[in-house]
Design goal:
This protein has 152 residues and is an alpha/beta fold. The chain folds into two domains: 110 residues, Rossmann fold (3-Layer(aba) Sandwich), CATH 3.40.50.1000; 29 residues, no CATH class. Helix content is 48%, strand content 14%. The protein is built from eight helices and four strands, in the order βααβααβαβααα. Strand 3, helix 5 and strand 4 form a beta-alpha-beta unit. It is globular, with a radius of gyration of 17 Å.
Amino acid sequence: MSDSEGTAGGEMTLAFELDALRQFEDPETVFAEAREWSRAVGVVANDTEAVSSFVAAHDLTQDFDLGDRDIWLTMEHVRESHPAPRYVFVGTSPEDRRIADATGWEFRHPTTVAEKAGWELSQSDRPAQSGSGPLDRLRSRISAFFSGGSDG
């Protein structure tokens, strides 16, 4: 789906930081649907072994060659080797935002991406994403009740 000449379909190269991709309920669907409108899709992190394990466990096709580079060099390398009109980096931390800004990528948070793409975030990550205030606890209890997690 990706090539070095930039002739593949899609308007962007899309990179997920490993912790960001872990926040999605169904990483396989995220990758499959992202491929419909992206030239290249992949996972990046400083821990390349963790990326390889995650990619293998979820049967994802990684378009990026991570080698033994840190995430900063990986992002630069991906940008150079996957031409596209846009480069979008989905991350979770202030460090991820700094990496995106320094390497010329648009930064997006998983909650924003999930909302726009119609992807579900995993239940275990939702409270951390949205906070732990009273409204969040109420939403969690209502969700648990309707999913059979409570008898009343």
